[in-house]
User: Fold this.
Amino acid sequence: MHRSRIIVPVSHCLLNPNSKVLGSAAHWSEILPLTEYLFSEKAGLYQLPCPEQTYLGCKRWGQSKEQYDNPYYREHCRSIIKQVLNDMSEYIRNGYLVPCLLGIKGSPSCGIDHAFSASWAGEISVASTGQSPGGIVPGSGVFMEEAADMLNSYNLNIPLVEVDETDIEGTINRLKCFLPG
Assistant:
């Protein structure tokens, strides 16, 4: 069997939308063209751990970057990305290409260029009174901020690329700059 020697680390929910907060998972049919494109380029997909799932489990509420932006969650993110970076270092050391790492537009954790932001706090039963619903703003999610810092400390030059689940064709066009095919 001929190996392509191309590996693309991808945010966990791209391959397992069940890991997303209840009610927010994309349809498989929306993501399928992206995975088909990556497979057509002979890329092996490396599923990143979901920092939100591994930190809060399945029965979590949607949260903002501000809620995740604390030293405890950042430490959790660093601890789970370490194994990924060790794996990527080993692949690269053995002649593999890791052309990019894929994050999710609007994720408070895995956003690359855009993250969900809101200044929520307090009791859930009264949270809707007078608080902004939040929105997508420029900037990275907490997990990807930590990943970027650790990529630098590992001397790994792996570009971070954002997947826009509402514009998969646009995402595929952006990926063509990174994949050798």
Notes: Residues 7-175 form one domain. The chain has one domain: 7-175. The longest strand covers residues 7-10. Residues 36 and 42 are 10 Å apart (CA to CA).
